[in-house]
Structures are given as structure tokens and as C-alpha cells.
Specification:
The chain has helices at residues 2-21, 81-85, 91-96, 119-136, 145-148, 155-173, 202-221, 244-265, 289-298, 311-316, 321-330, 357-369, 391-418, 420-428, 435-441, 447-457, 467-476, and strands spanning 55-56, 66-67, 75-76, 79-80, 87-90, 140-144, 178-183, 226-230, 235-236, 270-274, 283-284, 305-310, 334-338, 378-380. The longest helix has 28 residues, at 391-418. By secondary structure, it is α/β, with parallel strands linked by helices. The strands form 4 sheets. The chain has an 8-stranded parallel barrel with strand order 5-6-7-8-10-12-13-14, surrounded by 4 helices. It has a two-stranded parallel ribbon with strand order 1-2. A two-stranded antiparallel sheet has the order 3-4. α11 (321-330) packs parallel to α12. Helix content is 46%, strand content 11%. β7 (178-183), α7 (202-221) and β8 form a beta-alpha-beta unit. It folds into 2 domains: 73-418, Divalent-metal-dependent TIM barrel enzymes (TIM Barrel, Alpha-Beta Barrel), CATH 3.20.20; 432-476, no CATH class. It has 17 helices and 14 strands. Bound molecules: D-xylose (XLS) and nickel (II) ion (2 copies).
Length: 478
């Protein structure tokens, strides 16, 4: 009996692995001198043989290469799931993530990589990206300039490299795939060690401006819908050697120049600031949504920017992702979400795929209130664990991340349609749904009037917050 069960288990495992590694059309093994390993970068075969186009199979499916909750064309609250989600793949994690960490070497030896950072390799990788997008059914992507094309010895050489790869990307995008956002990598190269727009070195500020100028141009050329500024090293390690006021002024001037250039080239995409409290600097200037909003208001930039909220950054700043998206929303600043999550026991940006349905449901409650994210979307700024090393893991991770958010959308819609949570919140504030409440909310109640009422009414009756009931209702939708 026992051995029969064991055989059955072996058989079923075998089925799963067969699905995943099914028979082999030609792939692109970079190391064995196949066509794809030549310098042309023109190889057009399959990079993911055996991985089928991922389809929706419903919650009861046991197929790891299928969607259980994300059904792109299905309508939820009058909008297709794909239009609520606007998923995007982050080129840097998915195709430049190596699994290396401060303690250890890269662990991911993708078969298409030849171990170089050449232009030919960059082009081949771009083809891998588009095959991945096609198979996973995601029609948007995001990149940093230096992820997709190698840095040159001069700005002109870097720009020429970028142009070559971007021309290929444009061709591969065709009509089906579009660019959610582009951005500039202003934190890897040593010239940016003190920051880019906030570096005390004029030469660095100038260089960063040239790099962003070019990145905005190629984002525009690729039809990008947004342009992101994540202040990788815009912050400080010590205030003793830092003129914070001057650095913030410089950052504002940099953004003003970006706004002017955007208008000059006719780029209509949204400019997004991505808050993060620290890492790599000890203190980043765009600490969280509220700090970024305050910066934008102080410098009169608030109408020109929105925010890109990243869930793992939210928790690093001591907030929940729900708090950050809600803060952005009520300030009219919710522009995009970098969909990932942190580890509750780890204190850094682990960039994991979001797998917590509760967290996703909370985020989706705000996204629905916001009427969606367009022209932003959900960008999977998330990476495989260092120990996940199979090519199929790239698919499985994105599928699980998409399913989690899709399930969050379904749950949030259920909660909204059911109405009891909304009713609970409405009731908590109903004392303000009165003549005096309306006067207060319209800013027409002065202290003299309020004092008169306080004397007339005496000790106020204070109701229950009903938190556990709210949590019970929330749980019932998960
Ligand atoms: C890093 C950021 C980065 C931005 C793009 O923590 O999340 O990946 O999204 O520069
Ligand atoms: Ni991010
Ligand atoms: Ni991040």
C-alpha cells in the first residue's frame, strides 16, 4: 500500500516536471557556440522551450504554470482584470538579477547568458525579455538605462549603446507590448557615490542630468507612459558632512529641469518619485509618501509629479503598503505601485514577490477607490530568492505575484459590493453628517461657536471603534 502511494507520488511529480521541462525545441545555450552566442544578437529561436503560454485555469488547477486567480479578460466592478492590474515586468530583477549578495557569488546561470556585458548580450537579453512577456501574458515592462545597455567609456558611447538596444526593443514591442516606465540608473557607478542630483560634486550633477536627459528621450521614443525617479543615493550617511538644505534645493532644481525637458520633447508621461527611507544611504530624502509630498509642495512641483509606491519601501519606513498607497491617494499622488513585499523578520529591501493575500486585498481596496492606476500600473519590482535557480522559477514567481494581486482585487471587490465595511466606517463618522458637522468640514465653524455647542451638549457620547468587527468582515472576504 505504502509503496503504491510512493509510486503515485513519483508519477505525479513526474507529470509536473514534464509540464515544466517538456520536450526540447532549440533553445539558446550561450555557452556552446550556437547561433545565439554569436555577436549579432539576432538569434530568434526560443529561449524558454517547454514553457507554454500561461493560461487561466481557475483556483482548482494544480498546474504551477497556470493562473488560478488572474483572468485577464474577466470583468471585476465593470473593468477587465488586466486593466485594473496593468502588470509590468521589471527588467533589472528578472533579467539582470544574478542572485549575488554581499556574501556570495551569483547563483543564476541562465542558459542565454554568456557571462559578458556586451552589446550583443544586451540585445539577446532583450529578446529574452519579450519572449518572457509574451508567454506570461504581461504586456508592459520597465527598465533602467544601464540594465538594458552597457555603460560606455563616454556619455556618447553609452548613449550609442542605449540607442542600439532601444531600437531593437521598439521593434520587439510592436503593437502588443508597451513601456510602463523608464528610469535612469544613478546609483551603481562610483561617480554617484555621494548622490546624483544631491552630490556635492558639480561634475556629478552635470553627468546625472545628461544621463536623465537621454533616458527621458528613449522612454519617450519607446512610448513610455511614465518616467521614474528613485533617489538611489539621494540622501546622506552623516549630517555632519552634509548641507541638507542645499542638497534638497539641488534636487528640486534637477526636477525642474526634468519637467522643462519633458515639455520640450513633448513627452506626456507622468513623472514619478519613488519613496524609500534608506538603503543604500542611511537616510534617503524621499523617505515616504508624506515626505515626498511635502518636498513636492515646498518646491511647487506637486502638480508635475505623482508617486510610485513600493510595498517593501513602505514597510522599511515603518508603514504598511496600504498606508503608503492611501497616503498617496488622498494627496492625489497615487501614480504606480512597485509590487513586492518584504520579509517580516528581515530589515532590508528583500524585494520578494507579494504572496500575502491579505496585504494584496488592502492595497486593492485603495486602488479601486483610486479608480485604478492608469497610466501607472503594478510593476513587479521583485526578484527570485538567491536559492531559486530554475528558469521556470522566473515564471512561477510572476504567476504567483499576479495571482496574489488578482485575488486581492477579487476580495476587495467583494468587500465593496457587500458594503458592510463601508457602512461600518460611515457610521463611525455619522455625527459629522449633521448641520454642525457640515459647517466644520466647510471650515465655517469658529471656536466661539464650538464652545457654545460644547456647553450646550455637555459630555460627548463616544462610540466603539468596532475594530475587531472590521477585521472579521475583512477576513470573511479572503
Ligand atoms: C530600489 C528601487 C528601484 C526603483 C527603480 O530599491 O525599488 O528598483 O524601482 O530605480
Ligand atoms: Ni522600486
Ligand atoms: Ni526597492
Amino acid at each position: 500500500m505504502k509503496s503504491a502511494k510512493f509510486l503515485l507520488l513519483l508519477f505525479s511529480l513526474n507529470i509536473v516536471s514534464n509540464i515544466v521541462t517538456a520536450a526540447a525545441p532549440p533553445t539558446c545555450p550561450a555557452d556552446i557556440g550556437s547561433d545565439c552566442a554569436t555577436d549579432s544578437g539576432e538569434w530568434t529561436g526560443e529561449f524558454f522551450p517547454g514553457i507554454p503560454k500561461i493560461k487561466y485555469e481557475g483556483p482548482s488547477s494544480k498546474n504551477p504554470l497556470s493562473f488560478k486567480w488572474y483572468n485577464a479578460e474577466e470583468e471585476i466592478l465593470g473593468k477587465k482584470m488586466k486593466d485594473w492590474m496593468r502588470f509590468s515586468v521589471a527588467f533589472w530583477h528578472t533579467f539582470r538579477g544574478t542572485g549575488g549578495d554581499p556574501f556570495g557569488a551569483p547563483t543564476k546561470m541562465w542558459p542565454w547568458e554568456d557571462g559578458t556585458n556586451s552589446l550583443a548580450m544586451a540585445k539577446r537579453r532583450m529578446r529574452v525579455n519579450f519572449e518572457f512577456l509574451e508567454k506570461i501574458g504581461v504586456d508592459k515592462w520597465c527598465f533602467h538605462d544601464r540594465d538594458i545597455a552597457p555603460d560606455g567609456k563616454t556619455i556618447e558611447e553609452s548613449n550609442a549603446n542605449l540607442d542600439e538596444v532601444v531600437a531593437l526593443a521598439k521593434e520587439l514591442q510592436g503593437k502588443k507590448i508597451s513601456l510602463l516606465w523608464g528610469t535612469s540608473q544613478l546609483f551603481v557607478h562610483p561617480r554617484y557615490m555621494h548622490g546624483a542630483a544631491t552630490s556635492p560634486e558639480l561634475g556629478t550633477y552635470v553627468y546625472a542630468a545628461a544621463q536623465v536627459k537621454k533616458a527621458m528621450e528613449v522612454t519617450h521614443y519607446l512610448g513610455g507612459e511614465n518616467y521614474v525617479f528613485w533617489g538611489g543615493r539621494e540622501g546622506y550617511q552623516s549630517l555632519l558632512n552634509t548641507d541638507m538644505e542645499r542638497e534638497l534645493d539641488h534636487m528640486a532644481r534637477f526636477f525642474e529641469a526634468a519637467i522643462a525637458y519633458k515639455k520640450k520633447i513633448g513627452f506626456n508621461g507622468t513623472l514619478l518619485i519613488e519613496p524609500k527611507p534608506q538603503e543604500p544611504t542611511k537616510h534617503q530624502y524621499d523617505w515616504d509618501a508624506a515626505t515626498a509630498a511635502n518636498f513636492l509642495r515646498k518646491y511647487g512641483l506637486i502638480d508635475e509629479f505623482k508617486l510610485n509606491i513600493e510595498c517593501n519601501h513602505a514597510t522599511l519606513s515603518g508603514h504598511s503598503c496600504h498606508h503608503e498607497v492611501e497616503t498617496a491617494r488622498i494627496n492625489g499622488l497615487l501614480g504606480n505601485i512597485d509590487a513586492n513585499t518584504g520579509d517580516p523578520q528581515v530589515g532590508w529591501d528583500t524585494d520578494q514577490f507579494m504572496m500575502d493575500v491579505g496585504e494584496a486585498t488592502l492595497v486593492m481596496l485603495t486602488v479601486i477607490k483610486n479608480g485604478g492606476l492608469a497610466p501607472g500600473g503594478f510593476n513587479f519590482d521583485a526578484k527570485l530568492r538567491r536559492e531559486s535557480t530554475d528558469v521556470e522559477d522566473l515564471f512561477i514567481a510572476h504567476i504567483a505575484g499576479m495571482d496574489t494581486l488578482a485575488r486581492g482585487l477579487r476580495n476587495a471587490a467583494k468587500l465593496i459590493e457587500d458594503g458592510s465595511l463601508g457602512e461600518l466606517v460611515r457610521k463611525r463618522y455619522q455625527s459629522f453628517d449633521t448641520e454642525l458637522g457640515a459647517q466644520i468640514e466647510a471650515g465655517k465653524a469658529d471656536f466661539e461657536l464650538l464652545e457654545k455647542k460644547a456647553i450646550e451638549w455637555g459630555e460627548p457620547k463616544v462610540g466603539s471603534a468596532k475594530q475587531e468587527l472590521a477585521e472579521m468582515i475583512f477576513q470573511s472576504a479572503l
